[in-house]
Amino acid sequence: MSEHLQIERDGGLLTLRMNRLDKKNALTRAMYAGMAAALDEADTDRSVRVVLLTGGESCFTSGNDVADFIQAPPSGLNSEVFQFMRALFDFSKPVVAAVAGPAVGIGTTLLLHCDLVYVARDAQLKMPFVSLGLCPEYGSSLILPQLLGHARAAELLLLGESFSGEQAAQWGIANQALDDGAAALAKARETALRFLQLAPSAVVDSKRLMRAPGREELRRVIEEEGALFGQRLRSPEAIEALTAFMQRRKADFSRFS
Length: 257
Ligand code: COA
Hints:
By secondary structure, the protein is α/β, with parallel strands linked by helices. It is built from 11 helices and 9 strands.
């Protein structure tokens, strides 16, 4: 189990807490594998009713660890990141997310697969895939144009514009924006606990019905995006962008045609 992932049980509530604050909770392969295993186990454990996903009161996650992207780019559906994506996508019980500070890349796209999302008003959400020489992932190229319209989705996915927790709530990516990270976490926990009072099979059946329309198309898109993302990670454009981040300089795409 990764030291950067805290897993806590409180009755029927399972809390997964990303805990690598010195790197803004950047996700390593071990963290993805730990979250995937915890979700798979919780799915079959009848005593778990709901999952709370958080990075604490100050930071959600800065997305995939960029050094990992360079040194060990994920390839194929067996990679740790895909195990995590599949585990969250197939998770049958409710997932509640508490978001504060940065939520970058998969830190934003994973929210599209959670059931209830509470954000700090000043959280900074961002999907800088194209800026990194990459492409959208985890179904975002399908879900966001449907949810927001093509024009706004293009600002977020092609230009990689950041947006606040307040905007995420207005646009329906989050349920509610709260004053700060502590309030978002408290509200998410309070909401998660409400599931402990509800009929568990009725919740699971209802979530399945809500997620069913377009589900196989979404699964296909996630796989197509993943294959392209894996190719793009090995492209000269992405290598330039990821290296530039590690060297704390601006990427220079001028030599690419
Ligand atoms: N992967 C690896 N390391 C990361 C990281 C990531 N995704 N995000 C942040 N870090 C590291 C930084 O390199 C820095 O490490 P150092 O202290 O050893 O130099 C540390 O975390 C703090 O990050 P810093 O950039 O100084 O914090 P900030 O508050 O100025 O900015 C972010 C926070 C999240 C906006 C910024 O770190 C960022 O843009 N990260 C990259 C996000 C990204 O592109 N993710 C991939 C998406 S596909």
